């Protein structure tokens, strides 16, 4: 269990890499972010359809897979609803100071990413419950996905004129919710029959929601061509990973 939590922790702390990139090189432009989010979209989509869903069918049945999918999508929908309801953003910079606006935006991003990281931690835990290779692949993909999340939070903190240490530590702290999700996953797995099947499909539903609702559209919005190119690169990377693991 300790090894799984450690791997999950390292995956989560990749958000800190995004903070360091912003501190060293400044805020990345929309083209770079669009390309990187496109890569994350392609890789996460492959993990959902090639790893998580087939494994869920293997360790359970279609009923448990559907239950898990619906739970994962519902969780992410509730997270989005909660954030939009209780942390509304103002788009009128002339009504409040610009620095205060960006600090508000940073709080929004931080909470959103932290809450989204919980089911990603569940994905790592459920992956290790099936086979070590799957758990490591999921952890690697989530780590790569966490870098642009760290970029987004750190960029808004920098625009809010916060201190360098804060710009690094806040994105890093969001990654701690991933090992928390993994720990919860392991605890539930010891108590609930068919948890492996349900847990894998919960992770598939949550990650699929992120791909379709959040990071995929965001990559296309930032830069359509580079977003699409990044998706292709992400799919190619995962194809190579699967070939190397056979």
Automatic annotation (TrEMBL):
Annotated membrane topology: Multi-pass membrane protein
Pfam families documented for this protein: Zip
Residues spanning the membrane: 6-26, 33-52, 64-84, 105-128, 134-153, 165-188, 194-212, 224-242
Keyword Transmembrane helix attached: yes
GO MF entries: zinc ion transmembrane transporter activity
GO cellular component term, pick one: plasma membrane
Keywords from the UniProt entry: Cell membrane, Membrane, Transmembrane, Transmembrane helix, Zinc
Highest taxon above the source species: Bacteria
Localization: Cell membrane
Keyword rRNA-binding (UniProt): no
Main location class: membrane
UniProt xrefs under PANTHER family: ZINC TRANSPORTER ZIP11, ZINC/IRON TRANSPORTER
Family stated for the protein in its record: Belongs to the ZIP transporter (TC 2.A.5) family.
Name of this chain's protein: Zinc permease
Source organism per UniProt: Tepidibacillus decaturensis
């Amino acid at each position: 269990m300790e090894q799984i939590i450690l791997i999950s922790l390292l995956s989560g702390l990749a958000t800190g890499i995004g903070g360091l990139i912003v501190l060293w090189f400044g805020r990345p432009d929309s083209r770079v972010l669009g390309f990187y989010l496109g890569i994350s979209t392609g890789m996460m989509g492959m993990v959902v359809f090639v790893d998580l869903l087939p494994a869920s069918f293997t360790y359970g049945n279609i009923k448990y897979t559907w239950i898990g999918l619906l739970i994962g999508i519902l969780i992410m929908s509730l997270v989005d609803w909660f954030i939009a309801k209780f942390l509304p953003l103002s788009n009128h910079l002339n009504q409040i100071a610009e620095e205060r606006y960006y600090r508000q935006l940073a709080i929004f991003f931080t909470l959103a990413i932290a809450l989204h990281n919980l089911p990603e931690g569940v994905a790592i835990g459920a992956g290790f419950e099936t086979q070590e290779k799957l758990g490591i692949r999921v952890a690697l993909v989530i780590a790569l996905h966490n870098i642009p999340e760290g970029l987004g939070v750190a960029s808004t903190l920098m625009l809010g004129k916060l201190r360098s240490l804060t710009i690094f530590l806040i994105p890093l702290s969001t990654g701690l919710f991933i090992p928390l999700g993994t720990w919860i996953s392991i605890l539930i797995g010891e108590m609930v029959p068919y948890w492996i099947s349900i847990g894998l499909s919960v992770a598939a539903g949550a990650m699929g929601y992120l791909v379709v609702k959040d990071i995929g559209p965001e990559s296309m919005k930032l830069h359509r061509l580079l977003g699409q190119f990044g998706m292709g690169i992400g799919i190619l990377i995962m194809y190579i990973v699967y070939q190397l693991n056979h």
